[in-house]
Design goal:
Shape: elongated
Strand content: 15-25%
Oligomer: single chain
Radius of gyration: 19 Å
Structural class: alpha/beta
Largest sheet: 5 strands, parallel
Strand order of the largest sheet: 2-1-3-4-5
Helix content: 40-55%
Number of helices: 8
Distance between the termini: 39 Å
Order of helices and strands: EHEHEHEHEHEEEEHEHHEE
Bound molecules: calcium ion
Length: 233
């Protein structure tokens, strides 16, 4: 079942959208605030985000820009009352994938959502751990796929959904070398080399969260000229 985040501060409109998308068998979360919605979007592996341009605290363009800067590739459908060509161009430049001007018909929205999800699922396949068994490395690092929790030196580590998937995938295959394109394909479902910087920044963030000295990593090792591998003892 596809999961969709609706970021829209108008509660009548957001519940209308939510009702109709739930009726199409999607799981829908609604958030009314920009900053909170951004956090929610990064922390959960959504299949689609419907993002209103005019939001309190942080507007839709800012949310979009920051979301993409955190290297999340989930498609974004932007909604706006400011239905001008310029807004459309800026929205798409900030990383939105499609655009719907208010007022719109619910049928139009449903058609767009369906098309975007179909397009995205053709391009991507979600990472699913093959086993739910915990992985423990050197007594220091413990990965629990059932709870999606990581403990490092007895401290619970806060990871984004993608960071967890990437770490779990690497740790499930210790010693095996992966290049960036392979990791992108495995975790994000994209094998477009345009996004390879996404891997670098996720690896850097992971290292800063789990390595004692991120400059001299012990878990996620660089294989020069190729890519990365996980510590294999
Ligand atoms: Ca609004």
């Amino acid at each position: 079942m596809a999961t969709i985040l609706v970021l829209e501060d108008d509660s009548d409109l957001s519940s209308l959208i939510s009702t109709h998308l739930t009726g199409m068998q999607y799981r829908v979360d609604v958030c009314h605030h920009g900053a909170k919605g951004l956090q929610q979007a990064i922390a959960n592996p959504y299949d689609l985000i419907i993002l209103d341009l005019g939001l309190p605290e942080m507007d839709g363009l800012d949310v979009c820009k920051r979301y993409r800067a955190s290297n999340e590739l989930t498609p974004i459908l932007m909604l706006t009352a400011r239905n001008t060509e310029l807004d459309k161009v800026i929205g798409l430049e900030m990383g939105a994938d499609d655009y719907l001007g208010k007022p719109f018909s619910i049928r139009e929205l449903q058609a767009r959502v369906k098309a975007m999800l179909r397009r995205h699922s053709l391009l991507s396949k979600k990472f699913e751990p093959e086993s739910n068994a915990e992985i423990v490395v050197n007594q220091d690092l413990c990965l629990d796929p059932a709870k999606r929790q990581v403990k490092c030196r007895s401290t619970l580590i806060d990871l984004t959904a993608r960071e967890f998937d990437l770490l779990f995938f690497l740790a499930s295959n210790p010693g095996r070398v992966y290049n960036r394109e392979q990791l992108l394909d495995k975790i994000w479902g994209y094998s477009n080399s345009y996004y390879e910087h996404t891997i670098n920044s996720n690896i850097n963030r992971l290292r800063s969260k789990i390595e004692l000295d991120p400059a001299r990593p012990e878990y996620i090792l660089t294989v020069r000229g190729v890519g990365y591998k996980f510590f294999d003892g």
